[in-house]
Amino acid sequence: MRPSLFYKQCNAKTAKALTFFLISIFAIGLAAFSTPFRYKAMPLPEKMKGAWIATVENIDYPSKPGLSVKEQKKEYIALLDALNEAGINTVFMQVRPTADTFWPSALDPWSIYLTGKQGKKPGLLYNPLKFMIEETHKRGMSFHAWLNPYRVTNIMKTELDKKSYAKKNPEIITEYGGKTYYNPARKESRNHNAEIITELLKEYKIDGIHFDDYFYPYPVQKNKQDIDFPDSEDYEAYQAAGGTMSKADWRRDNVNQLIRELHETIKKIKPDAAFGISPFGIWRNKSEEVPDGSDTSAFQCYEKLYADTREWIKQGWIDYIMPQLYWHYGHKTAPYGLLLDWWDRETQNYGNGKVKLYIGLALYKHSDKAAGWKNGELEKQLKDIEERNTVSGGVFFSAKYFLKNENREKEIVKGFYEK
């Protein structure tokens, strides 16, 4: 063989080998980059000790808009450390407080609560959500992404960023009570929620998706009368198309469609990710001639927020229910013990053993020493949960009270489930 031909063949073989090597390295790198797709979610705990970290209006985090990246990280770590000292095992982090996000989303702008201006980056190449997840998991805690499905702005005068889906689709936005909302009657509103959650599940190592109590907005009153939510045109269009449901049932059906479709979306993309909701603590009142309702006489999420929480349990559209039982035992119209009994019974009767029951607890009332919250009220509520095998734990609102620890919050919660 001539030397020149030998070298040409060697060069060709070397080139092929090098090409194969580079492709292999690229494939390995791509697989590493895609690890969130394969992340196995941490299972729901049998003994939940959770905490909400609220970002809307900067309730818990960050303490104010416009903090530097260093300050934001420092504050989050301080919150986590306080939660860790209290034995918290699950964090419910509000990552989409309005129609904006705490991550570099391809679908919606940066949150106003990070920088004070919607759409403004909180820092060069800084991803708050990625940082928060890593720090949370580093401490052995689960991370559940808490979103609001309908709220666009919490203050009317908020200037929407040009990237905002709401800005691009004003026809599906409704004004009510000085705030703006995605219209629950519109399919586009449901689809956008599904797209946002799909992005979260595919790109981040989150353990669950969480909603709180906000569906149709809490009623605004004038002259002590509820002002009706402005969706008459949508309801009339529904009737014109042959719909026969009452307006209230139609609204509940709009919310039901959202919950059912999101459940399907979540389980299709990431079956081990939990989907749960923390509704207002009263489904319906027995006093309103509803035999299955609780023996209470107060605000009802079924009638006012059009949230049929029991239907979600019956249909298995959620993995857990977390009613906000923010009352004390001696409350006149909504006593804690009575409602705990009701939710315990209802979840057992309709959840088929598949829906976990956690209780939302008013840590803020204990901290503020509200009426009825003295003399060990919180400790009594926790003991009542501990003694029930059918209740799987509690979640505390909100995280900043652990950080302040002005009324032994960390010590009391640390003892929860540890006696």
Query: If you compute it from the alpha carbons, what radius of gyration comes out, rounded to the nearest whole angstrom?
Result: 24 Å
- Helix coverage percent of residues? 40-55%
Oligomer: single chain
- CATH-defined superfamily of the largest domain: Glycosidases
CATH architecture label name of the largest domain: Alpha-Beta Barrel
Explain this structure.
The longest helix has 31 residues, at 3-33. The chain contains 16 helices and 14 strands. The strands form 3 sheets. It has a 9-stranded parallel beta sheet. The protein has helices spanning 3-33, 35-38, 69-85, 112-115, 128-138, 165-168, 187-203, 232-240, 247-269, 301-304, 309-315, 336-350, 363-367, 377-386, 400-404, 409-414; strands at residues 48-53, 90-96, 142-147, 151-153, 173-176, 179-182, 208-211, 221-222, 225-226, 274-277, 320-321, 356-357, 359-361, 393-396. The protein folds into 2 domains: 1-33; 49-414, Alpha-Beta Barrel (TIM Barrel), CATH 3.20.20.80. Helix 3 (69-85) runs parallel beside helix 5 (128-138) and helix 7 (187-203) packs parallel to helix 9. With 419 residues, the chain is an alpha/beta fold.
